[in-house]
Amino acid sequence: MMKRKEFLKRVGHSTLYGGMVLTGLSGCKKDNEQRPAEDCKLTGPDDLGPFFVAGSSNIVNLNTQNLPGTPMMVSGKVFSGEGASNPIENAKIEIWHADSGGRYHPEGSGDVSDYEASQITLRGFVLTPGDGSYSFQSILPGLYGGRARHIHYRISASDHDILVTQSYFLGDARIQEDPLSQNAGDCRIISFQDNGSGTQVGIVNFNIKKS
């Protein structure tokens, strides 16, 4: 896995994916003032959606069935409260998203025990170490219905409120059309880079509220 220093050295050029210009890193920089401002303090909540399945596996590569698509790696940190001075150890980040054709696996909810193992992929969870960091690999999600491209997260940690949220893709024209992504602000819209090996990499941090 690419070390963070190496990743930061490699970013700085743009690439094109599915009609979206992917450039730079995630953060609070405005995208031509097209998105509402967000203070990048507490991460805003978002819709759970109809396809959350509890009981997913602790895995780094969500694409357990090697589905076709552009490789993706997302990393960042989870912090307690506002700012970046209090990383959370042992935060659980459950992640799920559509495949490159816009289909979820499974296209349902409930628990993993309700499905065959072959029906479960592009979902799982990671746990943060002492510095609050996380990373996972997968493939870039495709378009689903009228939604902007997105990734779902459910983040839980001891003594903190559970955060259900989504991240979006910088340059996606649907962001201004999707009622959910219109309110995402700058800090949940990720800018991706090609790492030189064909993998799109991006960073998004989460700040969750202490109970």
Topology, element by element:
Elements: H1 4-10, E1 15-17, E2 20-22, E3 53-54, E4 71-80, E5 92-96, E6 110-111, E7 123-127, E8 133-139, E9 150-156, E10 163-169, E11 189-190, E12 193-194, E13 200-203, E14 206-208
Parallel strand pairs: 3-6, 4-13, 4-14, 10-11
Antiparallel strand pairs: 1-2, 4-8, 5-7, 5-9, 9-10, 12-13
Structural write-up:
This protein has a single domain (4-208), classed as Aromatic compound dioxygenase (Protocatechuate 3,4-Dioxygenase, subunit A, Sandwich), CATH 2.60.130.10. The radius of gyration is 16 Å and the shape is globular. Residues 1-38 have low confidence and may be disordered. It is mainly β and 211 residues long. Helix content is 3%, strand content 29%. This is Intradiol ring-cleavage dioxygenases domain-containing protein. Belongs to the intradiol ring-cleavage dioxygenase family. Residues 59-197 form the Intradiol ring-cleavage dioxygenases domain.
Question: What radius of gyration results from the CA coordinates?
Answer: 16 Å
Shape: globular
Helical run tally: 1
The ordered H/E elements are HEEEEEEEEEEEEEE
CATH class bucket? Mainly Beta
User: How far apart lie the N and C ends?
Assistant: 34 Å
Portion of residues in helices?
under 10%
Strand content: 25-35%
Mean pLDDT: 86
Q: Could you name the ranges where pLDDT drops below 50 across 5 or more consecutive residues?
A: 1-38
Structural class: mainly beta
Task: Indicate how many domains the architecture comprises.
Answer: 1
Q: Describe the biggest sheet?
A: 5 strands, mixed
Q: Count the E strands.
A: 14
CATH topology: Protocatechuate 3,4-Dioxygenase, subunit A
Fourth CATH level, the homologous superfamily:
Aromatic compound dioxygenase
Protein name: Intradiol ring-cleavage dioxygenases domain-containing protein
Family: Belongs to the intradiol ring-cleavage dioxygenase family.
Keywords: Dioxygenase, Oxidoreductase
Organism: Splendidivirga corallicola
